[in-house]
Design goal:
Blueprint lengths: L2 H4 L13 H10 L21 H6 L4 E4 L12 H9 L4 E8 L5 E3 L6 H4 L10 H5 L2 E2 L2 H4 L6 E2 L3 H8 L4 E6 L5 H9 L4 H4 E6 L5 H6 L3 E6 L7 H5 L3 E5 L4 H8 L5 E6 L2 H9 L4 E4 L2 H4 L20 E3 L11 E3 L4 E4 L5 E5 L9 E9 L10 E8 L15 E7 L4 E6 L7 E6 L10 E8 L2 E6 L6 E5 L7 E6 L7 E8 L1
Parallel strand pairs: 1-2, 1-11, 2-6, 6-7, 7-8, 8-9, 9-10, 10-11
Antiparallel strand pairs: 2-3, 4-5, 12-15, 13-14, 14-25, 15-24, 16-21, 16-25, 17-18, 17-24, 18-19, 19-20, 21-22, 22-23
Helix pairs in contact: 2-4
């Protein structure tokens, strides 16, 4: 991709300091170019104050995984406060310790992934660590803020009195110091849950001090009944099979699943009997934001609900947001899609989805294509040419200019062609304006407002409120989208 295309400012955004709701609203207002997501009414801050209240809630309840890392730099004071203001009923915190014994909030024992500096926290002083910044721009967007690694005591001073917090000693070497800090807060056992891998034994010390404990397992469930019986609550990763999750639920203890990024993940887990969602995408999954009508690519920060087709491969397949051109570029060397959850749900009984696409550097082979999937009943990933759990349509523009509309059923890789029309092959760098219109049973796909470049069919099989941008070839030839709008 050309240097001019990927250039973007990496200025640190400044956030107002104050109450949690103020922090959250500040983060919204300062990313508004051209749009910003909005809370659905007043900030829906949780009223849950105690562990007993959390587990008394009707399922599902929500725990902000790493402070909701799909929305803010993970394990930062900003993330924790914003997640609470967005409605999370509990916060999850990972803990490491510096060489001089300061407990800090960080998932990894080494700070390289988040800071670019290859050093273990246990070998750094608190003073040295304070100079580093969490950098989640590869995941959140080029204008996401750089945030300090917080001291655990500072975070607990701000949040412990009013929130439920799941706390994990990530290395297992700081149990005594961590429990001592937890004990120093009033009514600590009502605010803190001890979190750990179920195969370790530190939870026994926490339990003796009166704390409830949550033990999480890997999908293979290779743990004994004796190990699992030592915990009050159990946890499992979302990638586990239905059978594995059901077996854990059948043990009769409340189960919390992590990490939940999509509403469809939540819905599947809920059907299997999971009661708690340890969620990385709190505003979107909880529905505490209003659906957008235009994209927010120019903000340089990903909107809640906008996600690549998978979140299980780390940050590398997050499409590149380009603030200067108000666009997003899909260039990963696989068939991919970018779910536009920030718009969902769309009322597809009568709507118009418009967008622009171009191939900025070179075009793929003439039969290759990109476009839009729509009418999806859920936010399950939909990739053209690869089977999905969700049915829908996809409108595609081929590099040779042909405009096609397909219908596809769940579990089937190939779609059924509903209509096609030849149009001129787009030139390299040429923006192509495309519109998908739905009115009753009629679906119309058009290019550039030209009445000769229209596909129109009557088909009412799919009217779900979710859609995705799609790159439908494995070549690493970038395709760029902009000006996404729903009317």
């Amino acid at each position: 991709m050309s240097e001019s295309l990927i250039r973007a400012r990496f200025d640190r955004r400044q956030f107002l300091v104050g109450g949690a709701a103020v922090l959250f609203l500040a983060s919204c207002s300062q990313r508004s170019s051209p749009t910003s997501y909005q809370l659905a009414g007043a900030a829906p801050a949780s009223t849950v104050r105690a562990v007993s209240e959390l587990f008394a809630l009707a399922a599902p309840f929500y725990v902000a995984h790493r402070g909701s890392g799909d929305n803010w730099p993970e394990h930062t004071a900003l993330a924790y406060s914003n997640a609470a203001a967005a409605g999370a009923q509990a916060i999850e915190i990972s803990v490491n310790a510096t060489a001089d014994g300061v407990l800090v909030c960080h998932h990894d024992k080494n700070i390289r992934r988040m800071t670019g500096v290859d050093r273990d926290i246990a070998e750094m002083s608190w003073s040295e660590l304070q100079a580093q910044r969490n950098d989640a721009r590869r995941w959140l967007g080029p204008l996401a803020s750089l945030e300090p690694i917080p001291r655990l005591s500072d975070v607990l001073d701000d949040l412990a009195a009013e929130h439920v917090i799941f706390i994990e000693d990530k290395t297992g070497r700081n149990t005594t110091a961590l429990l001592a800090l937890m004990d120093s807060y009033p009514d600590a056992t009502e605010h803190f849950v001890w979190k750990q891998w179920a195969g370790a034994k530190q939870h026994q010390l926490a339990r003796k001090r009166g704390y409830k404990t949550w033990g999480y397992v890997t999908s293979d469930l290779a743990l004994t009944t004796e190990m699992l019986d030592g915990f009050d609550y159990l946890g499992i990763h979302h990638s586990a099979t239905d059978a594995a999750i059901s077996r854990l639920v059948a043990r009769g203890k409340p189960v919390i699943a992590w990490e939940v990024h999509r509403r469809s993940m939540r819905d599947r887990l809920l059907k299997l009997g999971v009661v708690g969602m340890m969620c990385s995408n709190i505003p979107y999954v909880m529905g505490s934001t209003l659906p957008a009508v235009t994209d927010s690519f120019a903000s340089g920060v990903r909107a809640p609900g906008d996600l690549p087709w998978t979140t299980d491969l780390g940050w590398k397949n997050q499409p590149q947001l380009i603030p200067d051109s108000g666009s997003v570029v899909l260039a990963y060397p696989t068939i991919e899609s970018y779910h536009m959850g920030s718009f969902a749900p769309v009322d597809t009984r009568d709507c118009r989805i418009s967008f622009r696409l171009r191939w900025p550097d070179s075009t793929p082979a003439s039969s290759k294509h990109a476009g839009l999937s729509f009418g999806l009943a859920s936010d399950d990933p939909y990739r053209v040419g690869i089977s999905s759990r969700v049915s829908g349509y996809h409108a595609i523009l081929r590099a040779n200019g042909r405009l096609d509309l397909y219908e596809r059923r769940s579990g089937i890789a190939r779609g059924t062609l509903l209509g096609t029309v030849p149009t001129p092959a787009p030139a390299v760098g040429e923006w192509v304006d495309l519109v998908v219109s739905i009115s009753g049973a009629r679906i119309t796909v058009s290019r550039g407002g030209n009445p000769a470049w229209v596909v129109a069919v009557d088909d009412s099989r799919h009217r779900g409120g979710y859609f995705s941008l799609c790159k439908n070839y494995a070549d690493p030839i970038p395709v760029e989208f902009s000006a996404v709008r729903v009317e």
